Amino acid sequence: MATVARCAPLPAAQSALVADPQFQQSVQWSHTLVQKILLSIPETHKSCIHTETLRLNSTENAKLQLMASSIGIRSAPALRVVSEDFTVETGLTRMSEGLQLHRDLLASVSPRLTNTGKVDELMGDIKDLVVHVNKMLKMVRTEVTAQPTPTPVNLQMPGEYEVQVAAHLTLVQLQTFGQDMVRSLRSMEQNEDKEADG
């Protein structure tokens, strides 16, 4: 069941930035790539997670948060729809950071998995999405700022179970982050419905 979220109009300065056709094209490409990533997560999960108790859309996943902490899986940055309090630039910066985090997490766990084909494809899609997000970020940046150096990912996975949990929780978190990205990107879209309402 799909729900349509109505977004508040963007502030004038942000509205002019996102109205740029190149920006909108990147938003559309990013949206398509996020959808591709979201659709590939269940198959990726099935291909590399063999512990029966680790299910993608399980209510039990919340109980694994303590283990996520001990393994070293950092939380993704929080995303919201664009507003006066949450700018396009902030949203894109957090998207870029979150995507890079998930790519690094997958890269850390991948060598310990027996079947990495789908994981490699997923990392490739994330890399492509980072390119689009960073392209949009470059368009909206008001001043040149140095990109923060990402904190290296150092996962503590002494045994096979920890490897399975790390891969599982990374995919669960990526799925949630991707869904948040869809909502945030939707708030950056300029479409006829919004223009007709405005």
TrEMBL record:
GO BP terms, alphabetized: positive regulation of myeloid cell differentiation
SUPFAM superfamilies registered for this protein in UniProt: 4-helical cytokines
A GO MF term: cytokine activity
InterPro entries: 4_helix_cytokine-like_core (IPR009079), GCSF/MGF (IPR040117)
Superkingdom of origin: Eukaryota
Protein name, per record: Uncharacterized LOC115410212
Organism in which the protein naturally occurs: Sphaeramia orbicularis
Encoding gene (name): csf3a
